[in-house]
Amino acid sequence: MKYYEVEMTITPCTQDAQDLLSALSAEAGFETFEETPTGLRGYVQQSLFDQSALDACIAGFPIEGTHIIYKVSEAEDRDWNEQWEQEGFEPIVVSGERNVQTLVIHDGRHRGNVQLDHLPLTIEIDAHQAFGTGTHETTRMICSTLLDMPLQGKRILDCGSGTGILGICALKLGAASCLSYDIDEWSADNTRHNAVINRVDDRLTTACGDASVLDAINVPFDVVLANINRNILLADMPRFASVMASGSTLILSGFYEKDCALLESKAQHLGMQLSATRHEGEWACMVFQR
Fold it and tell me: Cα separation of 277 and 274, whole Å?
């Protein structure tokens, strides 16, 4: 996947201006921002970059006297998880809100003070250029939601699978099968790799592509998982709905708390009702029922 790196210079550069610009320019397709001494550095998939939306955001910027310029360049095609792959992480403990079960996510190398051999539910993640190790709030919130759900015999769809952690979690909790897809070939490969490590590869099928892979699906899913940025979720939710069984569950994360109202409105338009919301920091996770 190719990204643009957009260097935004804000004059004068204040925290309020940085926060507001990152919020407003999300409309242009940005996935993430880094604060810089002079403004922001944003990253956006080349295929999703809406430069006209960014220009409109700057033209209508509400802080009077603020001047914003930007420069677009092609981002270095690098391993975004390189530091993680070199250093690994300490085991991460995730519990459901009802604390019925506890999940430990680990990298196979670092055990900390956790005796993994005696735990009933563990997931080993070996990440290669893929998102989803359990260190991020959005991943933890979806895993926590799954821990509280009856998943025995369910058909799972994992959209934008990254490392495959969410589908693997569902399968370890008793789901019958999982179809995962990711637009990045390395992520699809990493999902297969982690499925083998966790001994669920006989129940997990992986595809490389975007949500259009769902157009060929004719068997509905019981649970749909998507940890993706807000703009992609809004674009793909109609396709999610098209493959959901009656009474099925849609679990979304990857967006900020301020985006919840927009996503709820979209879900209601598609015939789904909000059943739960949780937050961790500024990130949110929403559960819908069809």
Answer: 8
Encode pLDDT of 46-94 as tens digits: 888 999 999 999 999 999 999 999 999 988 765 544 544 555 556 677 7
C-alpha to C-alpha distance for 103 and 122, rounded to whole angstroms: 6
1-19 pLDDT, tens digit per residue, is: 678 899 999 999 998 899 8
CATH topology (fold) of 3-74: Alpha-Beta Plaits (3.30.70)
Strand partners, 155: 177
| CATH of segment(s) 82-289 | 3.40.50.150
Sequence ranges of the domains in the chain? 3-74, 82-289
Contacts of 175 (CB under 8 A, 6+ apart): 151, 152, 153, 154, 155, 156, 203, 223
CA 207 – CA 237 distance, rounded (Å):
18
